[in-house]
Amino acid sequence: MAGIKDVAKLAGVGVGTVSRMINESGYVSIDTRAKIEAAMKELNYTPNELARNLYYKKSGIIAVLVPNVLNPFFAQFIDCVEGELRRAGFKIMLCSTMKDVKSEAEYLDLLNRHIVDGVIAGMSSLDESEYSRIQKPVVALDRYLGEYIPVVTVDHKEGGRLAAEVLLASGCKKILHFRSTAEKKSLYHDRHTEFQKIMDERGVETYCYNLDWRRLDIEYYHQVVEEIFEKGIEFDGVFGVDRLAIECMNGLIRQHKNIPQDVKIVSYDGTYITEIVEPKISTIVQPIDKMAEASVQCMCELISGEKIKNRQIILKPTFRKGGTTV
Questions:
Q1: pTM
Q2: Residues in a beta bridge with 211
């Protein structure tokens, strides 16, 4: 393969001149640029972008950490954040951390070694101190990782309230509430707390099923729903994330239950899957596109050198009515 010395020799210039043009680090005349470009084309020379980026301690790559790429929320977030990063001039490095417990720490190490310019953390199994000591660009999604790490989240308390009010207005008297066990300082638990608080205040009976926060796969959700039906638990309302709500609806239909006459369902997240089933799911919609946009904006601010302390970007959820509530 041709190298920079070959290009310089063919163009009749010094190696330093070729380097200045490639790296845009100094003046190179129009005529000289033309000679260098012609030599590069003739030799089929491609600059070593990785080596150049490592020299300047920049890679143009942002690592995005999510627990599971098959989960509809994270799949949609990845799709949105990749577009936002591309528009900002970055490429994405994707890590599905649930497949390997060591991978989260390994991706943070890439940040320390300048292989990536920043990390957008969509989950965390590490201690908060692991992030706080980095002092490099990290943006947290829906969880608190330290006072100098900005957080992009949704007003989950409002989301839980919306879900509760919809099910109450639909006449529900006994509600199946799927809630996650606590992940470290995860802000999305506010929706469960607020939902349960309202039900308790109204004297509405609930059956809370505590989910393993580390399990987001379809097989687990199917297992959970089968367990609910095997126990013979009676309910006329359901509140849970999109994929679990759909799994529950399918199970109810197999039992010849009518939706929404017999059981009302409100899901949380509002991803695309809620609109490709019949009936469409009534859902609390997280503005995933805006979450991706805000995450990338924060990342760009951090990379440019801004110091952000105790900053939370809190977006508003909305209710989208489908055919699973009245």
A1: 0.83
A2: 180
